[in-house]
Design a protein that fits this description.
mainly alpha, 93% helix, 29 residues
């Protein structure tokens, strides 16, 4: 269970990082 929970947390963290990355990328043009 710990592995599944960790994987889910990593997926959410990665999604947040990607979202922030694209937000900055769009602002920079």
């Amino acid at each position: 269970m710990n592995t599944d929970k960790r994987g889910l947390e990593n997926a959410e963290l990665t999604e947040k990082i990607i979202r922030v990355f694209f937000d900055v990328y769009n602002e920079l043009g």
